[in-house]
Amino acid sequence: MPEQLYDRTSRACAIGDLDPRLRTMLLAAAETELLSDVEATAVGCVETRSVPRRRPGVFARLLGGGALRETLTAAVLLPRHLLVAVTDMRAGTTTAHAGRLADMTVTEVDQRLAVDSGVSVFTRWSNRAEAESMHIALGDDPAGVSFKDMLRQAVRAAKSS
Question: What dihedral angle (degrees, nearest 10) is formed by the CA atoms of 142, 146, 148, 151?
Answer without folding.
Answer: -160
